[in-house]
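Q: what sequence does this backbone want?
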């Protein structure tokens, strides 16, 4: 039977890769709903090609989309708006699969709604899990949602873990013979830069990742290693594992997407060409496998695989994320919010690249940490952290 798919963030890098996979399997999947925040022209073209039943945009873009759809004779497509619209499609009874591919905290409530509605949720929006880890994981258990990792590292870990691991109650220590997770990182475009060179880098340079083509925010996060920090937190929640059982390994070729070590001395790695279509297809079809256009790995062409320890002096964001995970409570939400604000300021050339981690650190020291049991507390911490980060930026610029 055909699966009905909702793609939150369809115009983004992950959204586009998702469409590419669905297009290859028209008998297995249909697009029920899509959302976009900007690039409404592109959204209209997606509507023309995939004929969803519902499209979601910000309220002030409804008229623009409506005109486009009218011109394309697609006025039968329902338009919903804002967060309420995103939540409505995420939990819609006719939806089987939700691709959570909005970037940042904006994806939290829609993703959580999909989980609470017991959907198969393909999680790309790592910030949502970083903010609400325990709540999101508990909701997945309580509502029998299938929360499948799309982030390539977590998808790799999922593939290397015992098949029934997701259901294990780990108490922080890995179970079922697993001893450690090795989370790989490319090291980003500035892996070999000195601190002085890091101070000078431009947004354009930061957005040019050597191995992956991605949205702007995650590209900057990859360059600061905050992406790895967020992924460390993501891994702890997804696999109910304490942070000291997760080691970050810099692996510049991005061929191994992460590894799992076992007590008997085995290390299992998942490898492949760096293309998000592989983890997306895996999460879509699991436990089956479906075809993608991604070519098989050519090991004869890939002459060398290298591994290094991350340098937390030049890339302090990784250390800040680990500390936030250790501290628990709303610290990861504070870290995430401050980082979102700082990255946006860097992209607007208001601050330097090296200021991003500084602002995150200052914000973590300013906003007080507390328990993250209530969603309201997390959202409140997010708002306070944004205000504190804006303050720090203001002081830095004056
Ligand atoms: P992107 O910037 O290319 O796309 C983001 C999407 O979210 C767009 O469709 C945009 O319209 C929408 N969006 C942005 N702000 C919004 C808001 N305030 N409200 C509603 N919608 C909004 O980002 P991306 O690279 O596709 O990444 C999406 C998510 O997937 C991120 O959380 C990222 O960390 C994660 N991820 C991406 C990759 C990758 O290779 N691109 C890999 C792993 C994980
Ligand atoms: Mg990743």
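A:
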């Amino acid at each position: 039977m055909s699966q009905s798919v909702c793609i939150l963030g369809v115009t983004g890098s992950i959204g586009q890769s998702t469409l590419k996979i669905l297009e290859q399997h028209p008998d297995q999947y249909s697009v029920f709903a899509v959302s976009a925040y900007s690039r409404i022209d592109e959204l209209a073209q997606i509507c023309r090609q995939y004929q969803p039943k519902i499209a979601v945009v910000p309220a002030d873009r409804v008229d623009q989309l409506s005109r486009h759809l009218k011109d394309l004779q697609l006025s039968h497509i329902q338009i919903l708006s804002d967060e309420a619209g995103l939540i409505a499609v995420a939990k819609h009874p006719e939806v089987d699969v939700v691709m959570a591919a909005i970037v940042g905290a904006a994806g939290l409530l829609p993703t959580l709604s999909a989980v609470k509605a017991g959907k198969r949720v393909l999680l790309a929006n790592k910030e949502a899990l970083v903010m609400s880890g325990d709540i999101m994981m508990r909701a997945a258990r309580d509502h029998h949602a299938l929360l499948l990792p799309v982030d390539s590292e977590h998808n790799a870990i999922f593939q290397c873990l015992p098949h029934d691991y997701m259901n294990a109650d780990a108490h922080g220590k890995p179970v079922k013979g697993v001893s450690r997770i090795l989370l790989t990182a490319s090291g980003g475009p500035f892996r070999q830069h000195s601190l002085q060179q890091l101070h000078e880098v431009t947004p354009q340079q930061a957005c040019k990742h050597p191995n992956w083509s991605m949205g702007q925010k995650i590209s900057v996060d990859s360059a600061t290693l905050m992406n790895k920090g967020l992924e460390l937190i993501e891994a702890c929640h997804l696999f109910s594992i304490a942070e000291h059982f997760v080691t970050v390994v810099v692996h510049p070729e991005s061929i191994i997407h992460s590894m799992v070590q076992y007590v008997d001395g085995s290390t299992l790695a998942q490898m492949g060409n760096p293309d998000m279509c592989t983890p997306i297809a895996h999460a879509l079809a699991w436990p089956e496998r479906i075809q993608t256009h991604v070519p098989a790995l050519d090991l004869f062409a890939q002459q060398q695989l290298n591994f290094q320890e991350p340098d937390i002096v030049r890339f302090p964001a990784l250390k800040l994320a680990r500390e936030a995970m250790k501290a628990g409570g709303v610290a990861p939400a504070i870290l995430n919010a401050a980082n979102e604000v700082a990255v946006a300021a860097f992209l607007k050339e208001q601050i330097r690249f090296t200021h991003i981690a500084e602002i995150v650190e200052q914000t973590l020291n300013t906003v007080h940490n507390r328990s993250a049991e209530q969603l309201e507390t997390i959202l409140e911490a997010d708002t306070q952290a944004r205000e504190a980060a804006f303050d720090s930026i203001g002081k830095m610029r004056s």
